Amino acid sequence: MTQHTISVRTQRKTLKATLMAAIIGLSAAEVGAADYQQNPFTLAYDGAIAKNEPGKVNIHPVSYSLNGLDISANVYTPANYDPAKKYPAVVVAHPNGGVKEQVAGLYAQRLAEQGYITVAADAAYQGASAGQPRNVDKPAYRIEDIHGMADFLTQYAGVDQQRLGLLGLCGGGGYSLAAAQTDKRFQSVATLSMFNSGRVRRNGYVDSQLGTIAERLQQASNARAQQAAGGEVVYSGDANLTDEQIAKLPFALYRQGYEYYWKTHAHPNSTFKYTTSSLLDLMRFDATNQIELLQQPLLMIAGTEADSLYMTEDAFAKATGTQDKELFKIEGATHIETYWVPKYVDAAMDKLTAFYARTL
Prior knowledge:
There is one protein chain. The protein has 360 residues and is of the alpha/beta class. The chain has one domain (53-359): Rossmann fold. Helices cover 39% and strands 18% of the residues. The strands form 2 sheets. The protein has an 8-stranded mixed beta sheet with strand order 1-2-4-3-5-6-9-10, with helices on both faces. Strands 7-8 form a two-stranded antiparallel sheet. A hairpin with a 2-residue loop joins β1 (58-66) and β2. α4 (139-154) crosses α5. The protein is globular.
C-alpha cells in the first residue's frame, strides 16, 4: 500500500468524521474522542479512563476461567479504593455485538464514580474472550456469562457479597432478566434499552418476519448440519453496508446501531455477526419466559423514541413476581442514544444511582 493511498484514506476518514459531526451536532474532535486507538485500554467511549491515578476511579484488566474458557474483563474500582473495606458491586452485561470497551464500560465506569466496584466482561466466544467457533451467540452461554461475572466479582477484594446488583444493556438486558430469575445473589436488577434477543431472532424486529420463521429455522438447521460435517461455519448478520444502504434501513435502532458500532464508537472486537446455527437456540428463547421468578427490585429504563420500547414494556408488564418495580422512560431518547448522548446517559445514571443506593 502506497503512502498516497494511506493519505487519501486518512483524508476520507477525517472528512467522514467531520460530516458525521455536522449531522449529529458535535465537533469532529468530539466524534474522535471515542476512538479506541487513542486509549491505552482501547476503551471506545467519551470520558474513558486513560490512566490509573491515585484517588480516582481505576480500571483493572483481568481474566478468569469460566467452564474452561478464558474470559476477558475489566474491573472498575471507586476513587480511593481500599481492598480492606467493603463496597457494593454491580455486574454489567454488554449488548449483542458489543464488547466491554463500549457502552458497558461507560456505565461500569460511571457506576464506579458513584462508589461501586463494577465488572464488564466480554461474552464467551465473543470479543477478547476465548471460545471456538467465534461469535457463537447462544442464550444459555450469555446467561452463564452473567453468572460467571457474579462468581468473579463476589470474590474480588473489597466486594460486599450481600450488596450485588445487575445492569443489563440491550441484549444483555434480556439475558439479565433471565439470569436474575434464578441467581439470587443479585439483590436488584436494572436494564437499559432492553432487547429480547429470542423474540427478535424468532419474529423479526418489531415482529416484522413472522412469515419466515420456518424458513429461517431450516437455514439454521442446515448451517448446524454443515458445521457438524466439518464444513465452513455459516454466519448471519455480517452485512458490510454502505452509508446509502444504512440510511435506507427501516428501523432507527439499526441505522444508529451501524453508526455507533462501525463509526463513532467502533472497536475491532465488536461485530454484528453470529453463527447461523445459534438461531436453533435463540429462536426458542424468550427473555420473559418464567419472568415471574424474578422477585428482586427491578428498574427498566428505555427511551420514549426507541423503536425497541415495546420489548421493555412487554417484559415489565409480565414481571409480576416483584412488587418493587419501575419503568422509567427517558424523554426524547432512541435506543442507541442511551449508549452515548450525555444528557440521556446522565438521566439513566441518575435513576440507576438512586435505585442501587436504595436496593443495595
